[in-house]
Write a structure and sequence with these properties.
Length: 520
């Protein structure tokens, strides 16, 4: 019963988000709370509450279950508080640098090279996103890339959806580096796997995935070039664009002298260097950097107050999403629903799949990494998968490597904290963004799996096609995919009908469903 409730919680939440029936902040917190309350009336979480409160199951009352729901929510918020504070100070830090124009030279240089060509700008977006993603921190990547490129996208009328999709998928690939979150968690759970061997095995799949994403950039860039054409910008027009950006952005902008700008550059490079070296917690790095940046750039109190007022909306919109994600994770984990989802993902594959267990792990890692947090997957699910793999004769490396394949989809999960910063900065809808990025994420997943087959990192599966369980799994998978596609298509057609658009215009302007910002 708890497994059914867990999957219902996930499906209801994702359906509401995809159909735009509820704001992600409300959905993340309200849906699990409602399901937990309903489950309490049916006594579904009695054992989980008894374990949590350290009491006998027979002594658990309905009031105890309601109290536990509150405690679980608080636990989740405490767990995500470090991320929330890190995002708070990271946004403030880079907002200071954006306000004083630290990234303006980068933006201007991109414009000089691209000369208003959408193709060059989108390819440049991919390259910049990949390079900055080497830091291993999604928040930092988002802030730096968006600070440099959003003004260009707005001025030229490019779709911010393209920026959001390219950035997140490039970051998805580079997020497999050993100093990034998922790989670091995997290495902690499987001590027999070393960082060097996992990096060597991942290099080729990552390189091919990056090449694939650059082709995606070319494809989307050509589409934008066809829609907008090429703007031949002169140096004078570029300078004018930079000035108009300051006026059109709606964000406070100030000018600082060369000495202060040099200090800002050194402070930013130093913060990123220390962040990559892992000498201090990211939250402390950005806290300290923010305090120094504010003291240097806004020595006058009224000016600092004006700056804080100008960025408070962006800060609040991002931080509350992380807090809501904490509520979801706290209830989902402590109630046992996370474990139930994990076990159901493992149990769906019959023993006949044993010879192809690394491939099974790779498949499980896709929905596992999307529907539950990385902490829950790598610390809760992976040990179960690895233990089963050892029984089938596979090493910890086989299991650890395969478990990383599903990260192609993880960054699209509503449980990934920093995506709300990206969505807030680019002003794109979560459901539209997930649909737009999902097909390319699937391409990355296929490339990673296919390359792993070729290198032998994942053995080519010997599928038990003669087993009825195999075909049951296949039919179930196809049915779920078909249901999702049908639901999305019906919703899309309904929106088109309400807008009074004909089927022909629906085909002609299909690509215009994505978010776009008109040129200034």
């Amino acid at each position: 019963m708890i497994t059914l409730f867990a999957w219902l919680t996930i499906l209801v939440f994702m359906t509401l988000i995809m159909l735009k029936r509820i704001h992600p902040f409300v959905g993340l917190a309200l849906v699990p709370i409602v399901f937990a309350i309903v489950g309490a009336f049916f006594g579904i979480f009695t054992d989980s509450v008894a374990t949590y409160l350290e009491m006998a199951p027979a002594d658990v009352t309905l009031l105890n279950q309601f109290q536990a729901i509150g405690d679980w929510s608080l636990d989740g918020m405490i767990q995500t508080s470090k991320t929330a504070f890190m995002l708070l100070f990271a946004i403030l830090f880079f907002s200071v640098m954006l306000t004083v124009g630290l990234f303006d030279p980068v933006t201007k240089q991109i414009l000089r090279i691209a000369k208003g060509d959408p193709l060059k700008i989108l390819v440049g977006t991919g390259i910049i996103s990949a390079v900055v993603s080497l830091s291993g921190d999604g928040t930092t990547t988002t802030l730096i890339v968006c600070s440099a490129l959003i003004p260009i996208y707005r001025k030229l009328g490019l779709r911010l959806m393209d920026l959001a999709v390219i950035l997140i998928l490039m970051n998805t690939i580079l997020n497999l580096l050993p100093w990034s979150g998922p790989t670091a968690r995997m290495l902690a759970v499987l001590p027999e796997v070393t960082a060097n061997e996992i990096l060597q095995a991942l290099l080729l799949p990552m390189a091919l995935s990056i090449a694939f994403m650059l082709l995606v950039c070319v494809y989307r860039g050509l589409r934008e070039r066809k829609r907008l054409g090429i703007s031949e910008l002169t140096n004078a027009e570029i300078d004018e664009l930079m000035e108009s950006r300051k006026l059109d952005s709606g964000v406070m902008t100030v000018t600082r002298n060369r000495t202060i700008m040099t200090i800002n550059a050194v402070l930013t490079i130093g913060a990123l260097t220390v962040l990559m070296m892992g000498l201090f917690e990211p939250v402390f790095i950005f806290l300290f950097g923010t305090l120094i940046a504010m003291a240097i750039n806004f020595p006058v109190i009224p000016e600092l107050k004006k700056f804080l007022d100008s960025v408070s909306a962006d800060v609040l919109a991002t931080v509350i999403m992380v807090i809501a994600a904490g509520v979801f994770m706290g209830i989902f984990t402590n109630s046992g629903m996370s474990t139930a989802v994990a076990n159901s993902l493992v149990d769906v594959f019959p023993p006949a799949f044993g010879d192809s267990w690394p491939f099974v792990v790779a498949l499980v890692s896709a929905p596992g990494g999307f529907f539950i947090s990385n902490d829950a997957f790598f610390y809760g699910v992976l040990p179960v998968l690895a233990e089963a793999g050892q029984q089938y004769g596979f090493s910890q490396f086989d299991m650890g490597y395969a478990s990383l394949m599903g990260q192609a989809f993880h960054m699209l999960s509503p449980l990934t904290a920093f995506i709300y910063l990206l969505l807030n900065l680019t002003k794109v809808d979560m459901g539209e963004w997930q649909r737009s990025a999902g097909k390319w994420a699937a391409g990355i997943f296929v490339i990673m799996i296919g390359t792993s087959f070729a290198t032998g990192a994942i053995p080519v599966p010997v599928l038990p096609v003669g087993s009825w369980q195999f075909w049951l799994v296949v039919v179930a998978f196809v049915a779920v995919v078909a249901a999702i596609v049908t639901l999305v298509e019906r919703r899309r057609r309904k929106r088109r009908a309400m807008a009074g658009e004909s089927p022909q215009s629906e085909k002609t302007d299909a690509h215009d469903r994505e978010e776009s910002v008109p040129a200034s």
